Amino acid sequence: MGTPSPQVVLVLAVVLTGVPCVASQQPNFIIILADDVGWGDLGANWAETKETPHLDALAAEGMRFVDFHSAASTCSPSRASLLTGRLGMRNGVTHNFAITSVGGLPLNETTLAEVLREAGYSTGVIGKWHLGHHGQHHPIFRGFDYYFGIPYSNDMGCTDTPGYNVPPCPPCPRHSAEARVERKGCYTEVALPLFENITIIEQPVNLSSLTGRYAEQAEWFIRQASDSSRPFFLYLALAHMHVPLGVSPPLPPASGTYGASLNEMDALVGRIRQVIDSYGKGNTLLWFTGDNGPWAQKCELAGRPGPFVGGWQRQRGGSSAKQTTWEGGHRVPALAYWPGHIPARRTSSALLSTLDIFPTLVALAGATLPPDRRFDGINVSPVLFGRSDVGHEVLLHPNSGAAGKDGEIETLRLAQYKVFYTTGGAMACDGSTGPAEHHQPPLIFNLNHDVQEQEPLDMASREYQAVLPAVSRAYARALEDIRTDNVSVADYSRDPAAMPCCDTQHVACRCQELEQHAAWRAPRLCL
Protein backbone atom coordinates (compact mmCIF):
# COMPACT_ATOMS: atom_id res chain seq x y z
CA MET A 1 0.00 0.00 0.00
CA GLY A 2 2.95 2.36 0.55
CA THR A 3 6.32 2.84 2.20
CA PRO A 4 7.91 5.88 3.79
CA SER A 5 9.91 8.10 1.50
CA PRO A 6 13.70 8.25 1.99
CA GLN A 7 13.28 11.78 3.32
CA VAL A 8 10.92 10.54 6.05
CA VAL A 9 13.32 7.75 7.02
CA LEU A 10 16.15 10.27 7.19
CA VAL A 11 14.19 12.67 9.39
CA LEU A 12 13.18 9.86 11.74
CA ALA A 13 16.80 8.77 11.96
CA VAL A 14 17.81 12.30 12.95
CA VAL A 15 15.24 12.33 15.74
CA LEU A 16 16.06 8.88 17.07
CA THR A 17 19.84 9.14 16.92
CA GLY A 18 19.94 12.55 18.54
CA VAL A 19 21.98 14.25 15.80
CA PRO A 20 21.35 17.98 16.24
CA CYS A 21 20.09 19.77 13.17
CA VAL A 22 19.90 23.36 14.37
CA ALA A 23 21.63 24.90 17.35
CA SER A 24 19.34 27.59 18.69
CA GLN A 25 17.45 28.92 21.67
CA GLN A 26 14.07 28.30 20.08
CA PRO A 27 11.42 27.31 22.62
CA ASN A 28 9.78 23.90 22.68
CA PHE A 29 6.03 23.70 22.04
CA ILE A 30 3.44 21.25 23.34
CA ILE A 31 -0.17 21.60 22.22
CA ILE A 32 -2.57 19.40 24.20
CA LEU A 33 -5.94 19.18 22.47
CA ALA A 34 -8.79 17.60 24.42
CA ASP A 35 -11.76 16.14 22.54
CA ASP A 36 -15.36 17.23 23.19
CA VAL A 37 -14.35 19.03 26.38
CA GLY A 38 -16.68 21.63 27.86
CA TRP A 39 -15.69 25.12 28.99
CA GLY A 40 -17.01 24.17 32.42
CA ASP A 41 -14.93 20.98 32.61
CA LEU A 42 -12.09 22.90 34.28
CA GLY A 43 -12.36 23.78 37.93
CA ALA A 44 -10.56 27.05 37.18
CA ASN A 45 -13.51 27.98 34.96
CA TRP A 46 -16.40 26.42 36.83
CA ALA A 47 -16.49 26.00 40.59
CA GLU A 48 -18.69 22.90 40.41
CA THR A 49 -15.88 20.96 38.69
CA LYS A 50 -13.59 19.23 41.19
CA GLU A 51 -11.72 16.71 39.00
CA THR A 52 -9.00 18.90 37.45
CA PRO A 53 -6.40 19.82 40.10
CA HIS A 54 -3.46 19.65 37.67
CA LEU A 55 -5.15 21.82 35.04
CA ASP A 56 -6.21 24.24 37.76
CA ALA A 57 -2.58 24.41 38.89
CA LEU A 58 -1.55 25.25 35.32
CA ALA A 59 -4.11 28.07 35.37
CA ALA A 60 -2.68 29.34 38.63
CA GLU A 61 0.90 29.27 37.32
CA GLY A 62 0.13 30.45 33.83
CA MET A 63 -2.57 32.20 31.79
CA ARG A 64 -6.25 31.26 31.55
CA PHE A 65 -8.24 32.38 28.52
CA VAL A 66 -11.95 32.83 29.16
CA ASP A 67 -13.04 33.93 25.66
CA PHE A 68 -11.19 31.29 23.63
CA HIS A 69 -12.82 29.43 20.73
CA SER A 70 -12.29 26.38 18.58
CA ALA A 71 -12.19 27.15 14.87
CA ALA A 72 -15.15 24.85 14.24
CA SER A 73 -17.59 22.85 16.35
CA THR A 74 -16.66 19.39 15.12
CA CYS A 75 -13.54 17.24 14.86
CA SER A 76 -11.85 17.33 11.44
CA PRO A 77 -12.52 21.00 10.59
CA SER A 78 -11.36 22.15 14.01
CA ARG A 79 -8.10 20.17 13.77
CA ALA A 80 -7.43 21.25 10.20
CA SER A 81 -7.78 24.89 11.24
CA LEU A 82 -5.49 24.49 14.23
CA LEU A 83 -2.75 23.01 12.05
CA THR A 84 -3.13 25.51 9.18
CA GLY A 85 -4.34 28.73 10.85
CA ARG A 86 -7.11 28.83 8.23
CA LEU A 87 -10.86 28.22 8.35
CA GLY A 88 -12.44 25.32 6.49
CA MET A 89 -13.66 27.58 3.68
CA ARG A 90 -9.99 28.26 2.96
CA ASN A 91 -8.29 24.93 3.76
CA GLY A 92 -11.10 22.80 2.30
CA VAL A 93 -11.93 20.74 5.42
CA THR A 94 -15.58 21.51 6.17
CA HIS A 95 -16.80 18.28 7.79
CA ASN A 96 -15.45 15.04 9.23
CA PHE A 97 -13.53 12.38 7.34
CA ALA A 98 -14.69 8.76 7.45
CA ILE A 99 -12.85 5.48 8.00
CA THR A 100 -13.12 4.88 4.23
CA SER A 101 -12.04 8.40 3.21
CA VAL A 102 -9.56 8.52 0.36
CA GLY A 103 -8.59 12.12 0.99
CA GLY A 104 -7.80 14.36 3.92
CA LEU A 105 -6.40 17.81 4.60
CA PRO A 106 -5.47 18.98 1.07
CA LEU A 107 -1.83 18.37 0.28
CA ASN A 108 -1.29 21.97 -0.90
CA GLU A 109 -2.12 23.20 2.62
CA THR A 110 0.96 23.72 4.79
CA THR A 111 0.78 22.38 8.33
CA LEU A 112 2.30 23.90 11.45
CA ALA A 113 4.51 20.82 11.74
CA GLU A 114 5.93 21.40 8.25
CA VAL A 115 6.82 25.01 9.04
CA LEU A 116 8.42 24.13 12.37
CA ARG A 117 10.35 21.16 10.99
CA GLU A 118 11.78 23.44 8.31
CA ALA A 119 12.82 25.75 11.17
CA GLY A 120 14.80 22.94 12.82
CA TYR A 121 12.22 21.35 15.10
CA SER A 122 11.66 17.68 15.90
CA THR A 123 7.94 17.17 15.38
CA GLY A 124 5.63 14.54 16.83
CA VAL A 125 1.92 13.84 17.01
CA ILE A 126 0.46 11.52 19.61
CA GLY A 127 -3.24 10.73 19.67
CA LYS A 128 -6.13 11.33 17.32
CA TRP A 129 -5.38 12.58 13.79
CA HIS A 130 -8.69 12.65 11.83
CA LEU A 131 -7.27 14.58 8.86
CA GLY A 132 -6.90 11.67 6.47
CA HIS A 133 -5.09 8.37 6.97
CA HIS A 134 -4.73 7.06 3.42
CA GLY A 135 -1.54 7.51 1.41
CA GLN A 136 0.07 10.94 1.63
CA HIS A 137 -2.58 12.22 4.04
CA HIS A 138 -1.08 10.21 6.88
CA PRO A 139 0.55 12.47 9.53
CA ILE A 140 4.04 11.14 8.78
CA PHE A 141 3.73 12.81 5.38
CA ARG A 142 2.31 16.06 6.78
CA GLY A 143 5.37 17.33 8.62
CA PHE A 144 5.53 15.00 11.61
CA ASP A 145 8.66 12.97 12.30
CA TYR A 146 6.83 10.64 14.66
CA TYR A 147 3.24 9.45 15.04
CA PHE A 148 1.61 7.27 17.68
CA GLY A 149 -2.15 7.16 17.88
CA ILE A 150 -5.50 6.46 16.30
CA PRO A 151 -6.36 7.79 12.82
CA TYR A 152 -9.80 9.14 13.75
CA SER A 153 -12.24 9.29 16.66
CA ASN A 154 -12.20 6.49 19.22
CA ASP A 155 -15.81 5.53 18.44
CA MET A 156 -15.05 4.90 14.74
CA GLY A 157 -14.20 1.25 15.20
CA CYS A 158 -14.95 -1.56 17.61
CA THR A 159 -12.66 -2.65 20.43
CA ASP A 160 -12.47 -5.52 22.88
CA THR A 161 -12.74 -2.93 25.65
CA PRO A 162 -15.68 -0.84 24.38
CA GLY A 163 -15.83 1.47 27.38
CA TYR A 164 -18.79 3.68 28.20
CA ASN A 165 -21.09 5.10 25.53
CA VAL A 166 -24.72 6.15 25.08
CA PRO A 167 -26.07 3.86 23.77
CA PRO A 168 -23.43 1.21 24.60
CA CYS A 169 -21.66 -0.58 21.77
CA PRO A 170 -20.65 -4.27 21.80
CA PRO A 171 -17.05 -5.52 21.72
CA CYS A 172 -15.45 -6.46 18.42
CA PRO A 173 -16.90 -9.59 16.84
CA ARG A 174 -14.82 -12.73 16.65
CA HIS A 175 -16.97 -14.51 14.07
CA SER A 176 -18.42 -13.37 10.75
CA ALA A 177 -22.00 -13.78 11.91
CA GLU A 178 -21.43 -11.33 14.77
CA ALA A 179 -19.97 -8.74 12.41
CA ARG A 180 -23.14 -8.72 10.33
CA VAL A 181 -25.32 -7.72 13.29
CA GLU A 182 -25.91 -4.00 12.95
CA ARG A 183 -26.06 -1.71 15.96
CA LYS A 184 -27.07 1.88 15.34
CA GLY A 185 -24.15 4.21 15.83
CA CYS A 186 -21.70 1.35 16.38
CA TYR A 187 -18.92 0.05 14.15
CA THR A 188 -18.95 -3.74 14.13
CA GLU A 189 -17.13 -4.62 10.90
CA VAL A 190 -13.77 -2.99 11.57
CA ALA A 191 -11.70 -2.60 14.72
CA LEU A 192 -10.11 0.66 15.84
CA PRO A 193 -6.41 0.60 14.90
CA LEU A 194 -3.40 1.97 16.76
CA PHE A 195 -0.55 3.28 14.59
CA GLU A 196 3.09 3.86 15.27
CA ASN A 197 4.37 5.89 12.34
CA ILE A 198 2.90 4.13 9.27
CA THR A 199 2.46 0.72 10.90
CA ILE A 200 -0.63 -0.65 12.63
CA ILE A 201 0.72 -2.12 15.85
CA GLU A 202 -2.61 -3.11 17.40
CA GLN A 203 -6.12 -3.68 16.04
CA PRO A 204 -8.33 -3.44 17.98
CA VAL A 205 -6.64 -1.01 20.32
CA ASN A 206 -7.09 -1.50 24.06
CA LEU A 207 -8.90 1.69 25.10
CA SER A 208 -8.32 1.02 28.80
CA SER A 209 -4.55 1.30 28.41
CA LEU A 210 -4.50 4.07 25.80
CA THR A 211 -4.07 6.96 28.23
CA GLY A 212 -1.00 5.41 29.83
CA ARG A 213 0.51 4.57 26.46
CA TYR A 214 0.01 8.12 25.20
CA ALA A 215 1.76 9.43 28.30
CA GLU A 216 4.66 6.99 27.87
CA GLN A 217 5.14 7.86 24.21
CA ALA A 218 4.94 11.58 24.94
CA GLU A 219 7.63 11.20 27.60
CA TRP A 220 9.77 9.19 25.17
CA PHE A 221 9.43 11.81 22.45
CA ILE A 222 10.24 14.69 24.80
CA ARG A 223 13.28 12.83 26.13
CA GLN A 224 14.58 11.92 22.65
CA ALA A 225 14.11 15.44 21.33
CA SER A 226 15.64 17.03 24.42
CA ASP A 227 18.68 14.74 24.27
CA SER A 228 19.20 15.70 20.63
CA SER A 229 19.53 19.39 21.58
CA ARG A 230 16.89 20.25 18.99
CA PRO A 231 13.74 22.19 19.84
CA PHE A 232 10.60 20.10 19.58
CA PHE A 233 6.93 20.47 18.73
CA LEU A 234 4.59 17.87 20.22
CA TYR A 235 0.92 17.83 19.26
CA LEU A 236 -0.86 15.67 21.83
CA ALA A 237 -4.45 15.07 20.68
CA LEU A 238 -6.21 13.19 23.46
CA ALA A 239 -9.07 10.70 23.22
CA HIS A 240 -10.57 12.39 26.30
CA MET A 241 -13.40 13.43 26.55
CA HIS A 242 -14.86 11.78 23.45
CA VAL A 243 -16.99 8.67 23.93
CA PRO A 244 -16.48 5.85 24.47
CA LEU A 245 -14.89 6.81 27.77
CA GLY A 246 -12.33 4.14 28.62
CA VAL A 247 -11.67 4.62 32.30
CA SER A 248 -8.84 2.53 33.70
CA PRO A 249 -9.39 0.56 36.92
CA PRO A 250 -10.27 1.23 39.69
CA LEU A 251 -13.96 1.80 39.05
CA PRO A 252 -15.28 5.37 38.71
CA PRO A 253 -15.71 7.29 41.98
CA ALA A 254 -18.84 8.99 43.17
CA SER A 255 -18.44 11.71 40.53
CA GLY A 256 -19.41 9.14 37.91
CA THR A 257 -17.83 7.84 34.74
CA TYR A 258 -17.41 11.27 33.15
CA GLY A 259 -15.79 12.69 36.26
CA ALA A 260 -13.42 9.73 36.49
CA SER A 261 -12.41 10.14 32.85
CA LEU A 262 -11.94 13.88 33.35
CA ASN A 263 -9.71 13.15 36.34
CA GLU A 264 -7.71 10.69 34.24
CA MET A 265 -7.16 13.32 31.55
CA ASP A 266 -6.13 15.83 34.19
CA ALA A 267 -3.56 13.40 35.60
CA LEU A 268 -2.09 12.89 32.13
CA VAL A 269 -1.68 16.65 31.69
CA GLY A 270 -0.05 16.83 35.10
CA ARG A 271 2.38 14.11 34.11
CA ILE A 272 3.38 15.93 30.93
CA ARG A 273 3.89 19.17 32.86
CA GLN A 274 6.13 17.33 35.34
CA VAL A 275 8.24 15.92 32.50
CA ILE A 276 8.83 19.25 30.78
CA ASP A 277 9.63 20.94 34.09
CA SER A 278 12.24 18.26 34.75
CA TYR A 279 14.06 19.34 31.59
CA GLY A 280 14.20 22.93 32.76
CA LYS A 281 11.38 25.33 33.56
CA GLY A 282 11.01 28.04 30.99
CA ASN A 283 12.12 25.97 27.99
CA THR A 284 8.67 24.81 26.88
CA LEU A 285 5.38 26.52 26.10
CA LEU A 286 2.48 24.21 26.95
CA TRP A 287 -0.90 25.20 25.51
CA PHE A 288 -4.02 23.26 26.52
CA THR A 289 -7.39 23.65 24.79
CA GLY A 290 -10.25 21.71 23.16
CA ASP A 291 -11.43 20.90 19.64
CA ASN A 292 -15.10 21.81 20.29
CA GLY A 293 -17.72 21.82 22.98
CA PRO A 294 -19.41 18.84 24.66
CA TRP A 295 -21.44 16.24 22.75
CA ALA A 296 -24.79 16.80 24.43
CA GLN A 297 -26.58 13.80 22.91
CA LYS A 298 -24.32 11.56 25.03
CA CYS A 299 -26.29 12.64 28.11
CA GLU A 300 -24.43 11.89 31.36
CA LEU A 301 -21.27 11.18 29.35
CA ALA A 302 -21.19 14.71 27.93
CA GLY A 303 -19.17 17.61 29.30
CA ARG A 304 -20.18 20.80 31.05
CA PRO A 305 -20.63 23.95 28.97
CA GLY A 306 -20.58 26.19 32.03
CA PRO A 307 -22.83 29.23 31.57
CA PHE A 308 -22.87 28.90 27.76
CA VAL A 309 -26.19 27.13 27.42
CA GLY A 310 -27.63 28.73 24.27
CA GLY A 311 -30.93 29.52 25.94
CA TRP A 312 -32.62 30.86 22.79
CA GLN A 313 -31.98 27.58 20.98
CA ARG A 314 -32.92 25.40 23.92
CA GLN A 315 -36.36 26.97 23.96
CA ARG A 316 -36.79 25.78 20.38
CA GLY A 317 -35.35 22.29 20.77
CA GLY A 318 -32.04 20.57 20.30
CA SER A 319 -28.61 21.00 21.80
CA SER A 320 -26.62 24.22 21.71
CA ALA A 321 -23.22 22.54 22.14
CA LYS A 322 -21.04 20.48 19.75
CA GLN A 323 -21.91 20.88 16.04
CA THR A 324 -23.61 24.23 16.64
CA THR A 325 -22.42 27.82 16.41
CA TRP A 326 -23.80 28.68 19.84
CA GLU A 327 -21.13 29.49 22.44
CA GLY A 328 -21.39 26.01 23.93
CA GLY A 329 -20.29 24.55 20.61
CA HIS A 330 -17.04 26.45 20.20
CA ARG A 331 -16.10 28.31 23.39
CA VAL A 332 -13.53 25.98 24.92
CA PRO A 333 -11.20 25.99 27.93
CA ALA A 334 -7.67 27.22 27.23
CA LEU A 335 -4.54 27.55 29.34
CA ALA A 336 -0.96 28.53 28.50
CA TYR A 337 2.00 27.68 30.73
CA TRP A 338 5.54 28.93 30.15
CA PRO A 339 7.36 29.90 33.35
CA GLY A 340 9.47 33.03 33.04
CA HIS A 341 7.64 34.16 29.91
CA ILE A 342 3.88 33.95 30.54
CA PRO A 343 2.86 35.75 33.74
CA ALA A 344 1.31 33.56 36.44
CA ARG A 345 -2.25 33.89 37.70
CA ARG A 346 -3.28 35.93 34.68
CA THR A 347 -6.77 35.71 33.20
CA SER A 348 -7.21 37.04 29.68
CA SER A 349 -10.55 38.08 28.25
CA ALA A 350 -9.09 38.65 24.77
CA LEU A 351 -11.16 37.15 21.95
CA LEU A 352 -8.89 34.33 20.76
CA SER A 353 -9.10 31.09 18.77
CA THR A 354 -7.27 27.85 18.04
CA LEU A 355 -6.61 29.55 14.69
CA ASP A 356 -4.08 31.74 16.52
CA ILE A 357 -1.86 28.85 17.59
CA PHE A 358 -0.30 28.48 14.11
CA PRO A 359 0.86 32.10 13.57
CA THR A 360 1.86 32.51 17.21
CA LEU A 361 4.12 29.46 17.34
CA VAL A 362 5.59 30.31 13.94
CA ALA A 363 6.51 33.77 15.22
CA LEU A 364 7.95 32.45 18.50
CA ALA A 365 10.07 29.95 16.55
CA GLY A 366 11.48 32.74 14.38
CA ALA A 367 9.98 31.13 11.28
CA THR A 368 7.84 32.71 8.55
CA LEU A 369 4.27 32.09 7.48
CA PRO A 370 3.71 30.29 4.18
CA PRO A 371 3.22 32.79 1.31
CA ASP A 372 0.42 33.02 -1.26
CA ARG A 373 -2.43 32.52 1.18
CA ARG A 374 -4.27 34.38 3.92
CA PHE A 375 -4.67 33.35 7.53
CA ASP A 376 -7.59 33.66 9.91
CA GLY A 377 -5.36 33.34 12.96
CA ILE A 378 -3.24 36.14 14.41
CA ASN A 379 0.00 36.24 16.37
CA VAL A 380 -1.14 36.60 19.99
CA SER A 381 2.32 36.70 21.59
CA PRO A 382 1.59 40.12 23.18
CA VAL A 383 -1.39 38.55 24.96
CA LEU A 384 0.66 35.55 26.10
CA PHE A 385 3.36 37.80 27.53
CA GLY A 386 0.83 39.99 29.35
CA ARG A 387 1.58 43.09 27.30
CA SER A 388 -1.88 43.28 25.72
CA ASP A 389 -5.37 41.91 26.13
CA VAL A 390 -6.51 42.61 22.59
CA GLY A 391 -7.41 39.73 20.32
CA HIS A 392 -9.71 39.51 17.31
CA GLU A 393 -12.11 42.28 16.48
CA VAL A 394 -14.04 39.88 14.26
CA LEU A 395 -14.13 36.09 14.64
CA LEU A 396 -15.98 33.79 12.25
CA HIS A 397 -17.82 30.63 13.33
CA PRO A 398 -18.43 28.12 10.52
CA ASN A 399 -21.47 25.86 10.28
CA SER A 400 -20.48 22.50 11.80
CA GLY A 401 -23.37 20.13 11.20
CA ALA A 402 -26.37 21.45 13.10
CA ALA A 403 -27.67 23.91 10.50
CA GLY A 404 -26.67 25.38 7.15
CA LYS A 405 -24.13 24.11 4.65
CA ASP A 406 -21.06 22.68 6.35
CA GLY A 407 -18.19 25.13 6.58
CA GLU A 408 -20.07 28.20 5.42
CA ILE A 409 -19.92 31.31 7.59
CA GLU A 410 -23.33 32.32 8.90
CA THR A 411 -22.33 33.25 12.45
CA LEU A 412 -19.74 35.79 13.55
CA ARG A 413 -18.51 37.69 16.54
CA LEU A 414 -17.88 41.45 16.47
CA ALA A 415 -16.45 42.63 19.78
CA GLN A 416 -19.06 41.65 22.39
CA TYR A 417 -21.78 41.03 19.79
CA LYS A 418 -22.67 37.52 18.58
CA VAL A 419 -24.44 37.57 15.22
CA PHE A 420 -26.50 34.74 13.70
CA TYR A 421 -27.71 34.63 10.11
CA THR A 422 -28.60 30.95 10.62
CA THR A 423 -29.47 29.06 13.83
CA GLY A 424 -30.12 25.42 14.60
CA GLY A 425 -29.77 22.85 17.35
CA ALA A 426 -27.83 19.58 17.23
CA MET A 427 -29.29 16.38 18.67
CA ALA A 428 -29.89 16.69 22.40
CA CYS A 429 -29.91 14.01 25.07
CA ASP A 430 -33.68 13.57 24.62
CA GLY A 431 -33.24 12.96 20.87
CA SER A 432 -34.67 16.30 19.81
CA THR A 433 -33.05 18.60 17.26
CA GLY A 434 -33.65 22.27 16.60
CA PRO A 435 -34.74 23.17 13.07
CA ALA A 436 -32.54 25.40 10.94
CA GLU A 437 -33.81 28.97 10.83
CA HIS A 438 -32.45 31.76 8.64
CA HIS A 439 -32.43 35.32 9.92
CA GLN A 440 -32.35 38.43 7.75
CA PRO A 441 -31.74 40.79 9.42
CA PRO A 442 -29.65 38.70 11.80
CA LEU A 443 -30.16 37.85 15.43
CA ILE A 444 -27.67 39.77 17.58
CA PHE A 445 -26.80 38.98 21.20
CA ASN A 446 -24.73 41.18 23.50
CA LEU A 447 -22.53 38.64 25.29
CA ASN A 448 -21.41 41.20 27.84
CA HIS A 449 -24.91 41.04 29.30
CA ASP A 450 -26.17 37.69 27.99
CA VAL A 451 -23.57 34.91 27.89
CA GLN A 452 -26.42 32.41 27.97
CA GLU A 453 -27.58 33.70 24.55
CA GLN A 454 -31.06 33.84 25.93
CA GLU A 455 -32.54 37.03 24.46
CA PRO A 456 -31.41 38.69 21.22
CA LEU A 457 -31.41 42.45 20.97
CA ASP A 458 -34.71 44.01 20.02
CA MET A 459 -34.35 44.89 16.35
CA ALA A 460 -36.08 48.19 16.97
CA SER A 461 -33.72 49.12 19.80
CA ARG A 462 -31.12 51.85 19.52
CA GLU A 463 -28.34 49.37 20.32
CA TYR A 464 -29.36 46.99 17.51
CA GLN A 465 -29.68 49.78 14.98
CA ALA A 466 -26.28 51.16 15.99
CA VAL A 467 -24.39 47.87 15.67
CA LEU A 468 -26.12 46.43 12.57
CA PRO A 469 -24.20 48.54 9.98
CA ALA A 470 -20.85 47.57 11.53
CA VAL A 471 -21.90 43.92 11.56
CA SER A 472 -22.97 44.04 7.93
CA ARG A 473 -19.69 45.62 6.86
CA ALA A 474 -17.59 43.16 8.83
CA TYR A 475 -19.52 40.19 7.43
CA ALA A 476 -19.23 41.40 3.84
CA ARG A 477 -15.48 42.07 4.22
CA ALA A 478 -14.88 38.62 5.69
CA LEU A 479 -16.72 36.80 2.92
CA GLU A 480 -14.95 38.84 0.25
CA ASP A 481 -11.58 38.09 1.82
CA ILE A 482 -12.27 34.37 1.66
CA ARG A 483 -13.69 34.57 -1.87
CA THR A 484 -10.53 36.23 -3.21
CA ASP A 485 -8.08 33.96 -1.33
CA ASN A 486 -6.11 30.95 -2.51
CA VAL A 487 -8.51 28.28 -1.24
CA SER A 488 -8.24 24.49 -1.25
CA VAL A 489 -10.77 21.72 -1.86
CA ALA A 490 -10.65 18.51 0.16
CA ASP A 491 -11.32 15.12 -1.41
CA TYR A 492 -14.20 13.55 0.52
CA SER A 493 -14.56 10.50 -1.74
CA ARG A 494 -14.71 7.08 -0.12
CA ASP A 495 -13.33 3.66 -0.94
CA PRO A 496 -13.47 0.59 1.32
CA ALA A 497 -9.88 -0.12 0.30
CA ALA A 498 -8.80 3.02 2.18
CA MET A 499 -9.94 1.58 5.50
CA PRO A 500 -6.98 0.82 7.81
CA CYS A 501 -6.78 -2.94 8.22
CA CYS A 502 -3.82 -4.93 9.47
CA ASP A 503 -5.23 -8.29 8.38
CA THR A 504 -8.13 -8.52 5.93
CA GLN A 505 -8.35 -12.30 6.46
CA HIS A 506 -9.68 -11.92 9.99
CA VAL A 507 -13.00 -10.60 11.24
CA ALA A 508 -12.91 -6.88 12.06
CA CYS A 509 -9.32 -6.71 10.71
CA ARG A 510 -8.10 -8.27 13.93
CA CYS A 511 -4.33 -8.69 14.24
CA GLN A 512 -4.18 -12.33 15.24
CA GLU A 513 -0.49 -12.40 16.11
CA LEU A 514 -0.98 -9.62 18.71
CA GLU A 515 -4.15 -11.14 20.09
CA GLN A 516 -2.50 -14.54 20.66
CA HIS A 517 0.73 -12.99 22.03
CA ALA A 518 2.70 -15.01 19.53
CA ALA A 519 6.32 -14.30 18.69
CA TRP A 520 6.66 -10.77 17.37
CA ARG A 521 6.95 -10.16 13.70
CA ALA A 522 6.82 -6.83 11.93
CA PRO A 523 3.18 -5.78 11.36
CA ARG A 524 2.02 -4.98 7.87
CA LEU A 525 2.14 -1.48 6.44
CA CYS A 526 -1.42 -0.35 5.91
CA LEU A 527 -1.52 2.80 3.77
Topology, please?
Layout: H1 6-17, E1 28-34, H2 53-61, E2 63-65, E3 68-69, H3 75-84, H4 88-91, H5 112-118, E4 122-127, E5 146-149, H6 176-179, E6 194-196, E7 199-202, H7 207-227, E8 232-237, H8 256-278, E9 284-290, H9 311-314, H10 327-330, E10 334-337, E11 346-348, E12 352-353, H11 357-364, H12 381-384, E13 394-398, E14 409-414, E15 417-425, E16 434-446, H13 462-483, H14 512-515
Could you describe the 3D structure shown?
With 527 residues, the protein is an alpha/beta fold. It has a single domain, classed as Alkaline Phosphatase, subunit A, CATH 3.40.720. The chain has 14 helices and 16 strands. The chain has a 10-stranded mixed beta sheet. A 4-stranded antiparallel beta sheet has the order 13-14-15-16, with helices on one face. Helix 7 (207-227) runs parallel beside helix 8. The chain starts with 5 loop residues before the first helix and ends in a 12-residue tail after the last helix.
